[in-house]
Design goal:
The chain starts with 16 loop residues before the first strand and ends with a strand. The chain folds into 3 domains: 1-115, Sandwich (Immunoglobulin-like); 118-210, Sandwich (Immunoglobulin-like); 231-282 and 305-451, Sortase (Sortase, Chain: A). The protein has an 8-stranded mixed β-barrel with strand order 19-20-21-22-27-28-26-25. The protein has helices spanning 236-249, 257-267, 413-416, and strands at residues 17-24, 31-37, 40-50, 59-61, 64-72, 83-89, 94-100, 107-113, 122-129, 137-141, 144-150, 154-155, 159-162, 164-171, 178-184, 189-197, 200-209, 272-274, 310-315, 320-327, 344-347, 357-363, 366-367, 370-371, 385-390, 395-407, 423-435, 440-451. The protein is built from 3 helices and 28 strands. The chain has 453 residues and is mainly beta.
Length: 453
């Protein structure tokens, strides 16, 4: 259990900011692509020898202003670019920056990737037309028109479609239609990319982001009030002040929690912690920032990764080491918590930890007998490790980036279960005030973590 003083942390909970790069100009030679950030002089990216049809995996980046530049392959990185674009990246958004059109009219376009939560049972899909021979084309899914018109060198709006195993059919303005069987998962977001090879259309479908197949309704009941006079009601932002004071006075940090929790409850309704760090398909172009922490630009370990089911959870900072059980929803669509306060559950209708998307783990803060496995979840801070062992013996290691407390009546399913372009983790328990009449805590605490590179 941590006994050192905590720093004061800034409230935040967001799914991060993501960027991927694409060369979709059929007659443009291979290029080198560089990405720089106006706010981070020590941060840069260089992708060498990118050719037509190459699409990188997503990379988590910091919000703010970025410049993307294309140069001929092998050109001096300080030379003038052939073309460049500026991206003002917003927190929680995802972007594709693509070279589109023919070389004589080449444009570097910033595409907003809509990773908001689709309605239950549906997926979201758009079309990027990188095939000049196709002209304006339409795309059908199992006989139904999904996108009516996708002009060459551009991207259509996203369309909502029923998920499942579908027949995608690209219908060009002239020439023969081309079919492709695809599987669109519920809660997924996709781009249908139409390329051209030897005068023939070559459609591909790429996953922009993945979400849960089923989205539970409302908050999670993960507490019975057995420790309601202790740390579950602590607001983690101000807990640092109490722990620091206790450390200076020589008192046990946990002895200050009740007092600090009372003060925090008055001053803060929503609290948490955050620290944002710059940290597809198989065969996608890999890239990563070159920083003082990553001088070789090592690509994220999750590119193209799939994950086995999780079996065990370890969080060294708060002494958690427990098996994982599967969780599901009841007839009303509400998440059923673990049957024991000593184990943590994985929502099995969502992504597995390490797969693309937001994996959710829930555990009780307490039982009627006392503290539960996630009693000290509020003590996690940015940089803490969360390790998930999987059925194949591998371990997915995540890094805590943020936390927040939500009122259960306002639990934001659109944030917690929203599709993400990379593997992310949500750890959920109860917190806030215990309502003795209702026999339930009023709030949920949600901790966010991202897969370590």
């Amino acid at each position: 259990m941590r006994t050192t003083a905590r720093r004061i942390l800034v409230p935040l909970f967001a799914s991060g900011t993501y960027l991927r790069l694409a060369h979709l100009s059929p007659d443009t030679p291979n290029v080198d692509v560089t990405v720089t950030s106006s706010g981070r002089p020590d941060w840069s990216v260089r992708l060498a020898g990118v050719g037509y049809g190459d699409v990188s995996g997503y990379q988590r980046i910091e919000p703010g202003n970025h410049t993307i530049a294309m140069r001929p392959a092998g050109a001096d990185p300080t030379s003038a670019p052939v073309i460049s674009a500026t991206l003002d990246a917003a927190e929680g958004n995802a972007y594709t920056v693509a070279g589109l059109g023919n070389f004589d009219g080449l444009a570097l376009k910033v595409l907003d990737d809509d990773i908001s939560l689709p309605p239950s049972g549906q997926a979201r899909v758009r079309v990027v037309n990188a095939a000049p021979a196709a002209g304006d084309l339409e795309v059908e899914l199992s006989g139904e028109t999904a996108v009516e018109q996708a002009a060459f060198g551009g991207a259509s709006e996203y369309a909502l479609v029923d998920s499942g195993r579908l027949d995608l059919r690209v219908v060009p303005a002239g020439g023969e239609p081309v079919g492709l069987p695809v599987t669109l998962d519920p809660g997924g977001v996709y781009t249908a990319l139409v390329l051209e090879e030897g005068g023939k259309l070559v459609p591909e479908v790429k996953a922009d982001a993945k979400g849960a197949e089923v989205v539970p309704a409302g908050g999670v009941e993960t507490g019975f009030g057995g420790a309601a006079d202790g740390s579950p009601s602590v607001a983690p932002v101000l807990l640092g002040l109490g722990v620091a004071a206790a450390a200076r006075a020589g008192a046990p940090p946990h002895g200050m929690r009740r007092l600090v929790g009372a003060v925090a409850a008055v001053l803060l309704g929503v609290c948490g912690c955050a620290a944002q760090d710059s940290d597809a398909r198989p065969g996608a172009v890999g890239w990563a920032p070159v920083t003082s922490q990553n001088p070789d630009g090592v690509a994220p370990a999750w590119e193209g990764a799939s994950a086995a089911d999780p079996t065990r959870l370890r969080i060294p900072a708060i002494g958690v080491d427990t098996e994982l059980v599967d969780l599901s929803v009841d007839g009303g669509g509400v998440l059923i918590p673990p049957g024991s306060a000593e184990v943590v559950g994985w929502f099995a209708a969502g992504p597995a930890p390490g797969s693309v998307g937001p994996a959710l783990l829930a555990g009780h803060v307490d039982s009627t007998a006392g503290p539960g496995v996630f009693h000290d979840l509020v003590d996690l801070r940015p940089g803490d490790e969360v390790a998930v062992t999987r059925a194949d013996g591998s371990t997915a290691r995540f890094t805590v980036t943020g936390a927040v407390r939500w009122a259960k009546a306002e639990f934001p399913t659109d944030k917690v279960y929203a599709p993400t372009p990379a593997p992310e983790l949500r750890l959920v328990t109860c917190g806030g005030v215990f309502d003795h009449a209702a026999g339930s805590y009023r709030d949920n605490i949600t901790v966010e973590a991202t897969l370590a590179a």
